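Most newcomers find our protein records easier to grasp once they have seen one. The structure tokens are whole numbers drawn from a learned vocabulary of backbone shapes. The record below serves as our worked example for the rest of this section.
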Amino acid sequence: MKHARKHPKLPRKSASATPSENAFWLWGTHAVMAALQNPARQYVKLYASKNAAASLPKGTSTIPASAQEISSLLPEGAVHQGLALHTRPLPPAMLEDIMDRPNGVLLMLDGVTDPRNIGAIFRSAAAFGALGIIAQERHLPPLSGVLAKAATGAIETVNTYGVVNLSRTLEELANAGWFSIGLAGETRTTIGQALKGADKVCLVLGSEGKGLRPNVAKHCDQLARIPISKDMESLNVSTAAAIALYEAGRV
């Protein structure tokens, strides 16, 4: 499977020097470099330390700043590595655009809200070629800051599909031939068994502790578990996502 977006090798210059109400911060080498290489990303300003600017491709427009000056622009404790990008959100991705694909893997997040976990899930989705991540718009944290740093650039290559209702979306996916598998520890069916024969799969992950909400679980075609030792109750949701994606890639 291939990523949803393709990037050129060289970044564009800043689209505008005018501040935007919707603009937010990305920081750190991987997150910023990936954003610069994404033709769909429009940014406002790029602040760079002398050392960081030297590593950028020729022609990149920057505002010189010291590490301390960059830190003053960002949340406390942000590890920026000399780079901070003030950028606008990416254009929204439309789930309808991939509904009719003959194969592929999607992830759906039900109540997963921790930015670091979601960032790690983006990273795994990019590594295993997932088509995108579906989440409720009102529960999805902004794709910026800590989340983007944890994703190490994957928010630029993995589409995000914000939806209003997960259960209704599962129904729509089913009508388009997608097979949805909800990860749940209480079932005997393993993820490997559930994936057999499935070409278009949506892997549904619930929050740590509560797991899948009952109505979301009810709308999944199959519930499946990741076999783990009896000594451990559950896995971190980002770890579970990586394992499920790996298993899906082996089918």
